[in-house]
Amino acid sequence: MRWKFCPSPAGKGNPKWHRRSDKLFLGIDHTAIVISDTEASLQFYRDVLGMEVAGESENYGPEQERLNNVFGARLHITALRAAAGPGIEFLEYLAPRDGRPYPQDEKSNDLIHWQTRFLGISADQAAENLRKSRRTLISTGAIELPDGRAGFRKAVIVRDPDGHAVEVVEQ
């Protein structure tokens, strides 16, 4: 994952990102992930994890090519939000379609491993929903961390339809 400063155009996005401030860093609005199929990802993030679609667009042109550093980039973008916290943005490349898939044998201790954390839902319920929907669990189920030193009490880690690791934690 790489971090980018992407200012929201006037009249778009959350008004808090348009306020004047002497701070260099105002916060994180969303993370973006490249996906291969919007509908498959919606079935996971919306239907299993409970996020809601906040908007969609198709982006292309010189600005998008420069932003993504991909010549000929044409993207279907879907923004999702939960009740609170940063959102997630799907980037489905309509062109070019030659991106490489996530390595099937990627493990949690690999240098390329990255996971997105979702907070607030029951880890036990998430693990059950994920098993029922036949998702690939990375962890052996909902794992309890009773001392709370990790900042949460229970967690489960799963792969989304494209192989991205998703950690569902409960306080």
Q: What's the order of the H and E elements? A: EHEHEEEHEEE
Helix content: 10-25%
By secondary-structure content and strand pairing, the structural class works out as alpha/beta
Major beta sheet, specifics? Answer: 4 strands, mixed
Distance between the termini: 25 Å
How many helices does DSSP assign?
Answer: 3
Spans with pLDDT under 50 lasting ≥5 residues?
Answer: none
Widest beta sheet: strand line-up: 1-4-3-2
Number of strand elements: 8
Rg result:
17 Å
Percent range for β-strand residues: 25-35%
Averaged pLDDT: 85
Quick one: overall form? Answer: globular
What attributes does this structure have?
alpha/beta; four-stranded mixed β-sheet; 171 residues
Question: What would you say this structure looks like, in words?
Answer:
This protein has 171 residues and is of the alpha/beta class. Helix content is 15%, strand content 30%. It is built from three helices and eight strands; from the N terminus they run E-H-E-H-E-E-E-H-E-E-E. The chain has helices at residues 38-45, 62-68, 123-132; strands spanning 30-35, 52-60, 74-81, 87-95, 115-119, 143-144, 154-159, 165-170. Strands 1-4-3-2 form a four-stranded mixed beta sheet, with helices on both faces. Strands 5-8-7-6 form a four-stranded mixed beta sheet, with helices on one face. The longest helix is centred in the last third of the chain and has 10 residues, at 123-132. It is globular, with a radius of gyration of 17 Å. The two termini are 25 Å apart. 15% of the residues are buried. The mean pLDDT is 85.
